[in-house]
Specification:
4 helices, five-stranded antiparallel β-sheet, globular, 174 residues
């Protein structure tokens, strides 16, 4: 039996766009099951988020699933959910250390000795409270601008990291 770590490593996170506003998580899971017919065993697909896109109108979902099943959907680039044809792509996230918050390495490989960010809340950059207790305004640790948190596409530094590390042309950045 696979360990919990192996199970997590074998997952791929996909983004599914252009769904109608009345689409449910169950409809998405059913459409995925129908699209990957021969890979039902061991699929354990989970819809994590289902939100309206920034421009309004359609929904965007993040879905985790077995890598083998994800490859099947990614090769098609599109899938049908109810009456809508939806775009499918992999969610790419630059590697980031949870100790120093710098990109390009993980905590295990961190050689940073000056700045240990462990215990600092990513939303506001302060210590001493929990997520539920935070009443501070969001402030990005990367660009030092209020209004968003680090590691989001609203941050120009994160967007550039994403482009540099993922090798994605600027015109394809969401």
């Amino acid at each position: 039996m696979a360990t919990e770590i192996e199970k997590r490593v074998d997952k791929t996170v996909l983004v599914i766009r252009d769904k109608g506003v009345t689409t449910t998580k169950e409809q998405i899971e059913k459409a995925i099951e129908d699209s990957i017919q021969n890979h039902k065993e061991g699929n354990d697909t989970k819809v994590h988020t289902l939100n309206e896109n920034r421009k309004g109108g359609n929904l965007v979902a993040t879905v985790s699933m077995n890598k083998h099943c994800a490859v099947k959907l990614l090769q098609r680039k599109k899938m049908r959910i109810e009456w809508a044809t939806c775009r499918v792509h992999e969610l790419l996230v630059p590697e980031r250390c949870s100790r120093c918050w710098k990109y390009g390495h993980t905590t295990r490989d961190c050689k940073e000795t000056r700045e240990d960010m462990t215990g600092i809340f990513l939303r506001c950059g302060e210590k001493g409270h929990y997520v539920k207790q935070c009443e501070n305004a969001a402030k990005c640790h990367d660009c030092k601008i209020e209004g968003h948190i680090a590691g989001r596409m609203k941050c120009e530094i994160y967007r550039q990291e994403w482009v540099d590390r993922m090798g994605v042309p600027h015109e394809h950045v969401p």
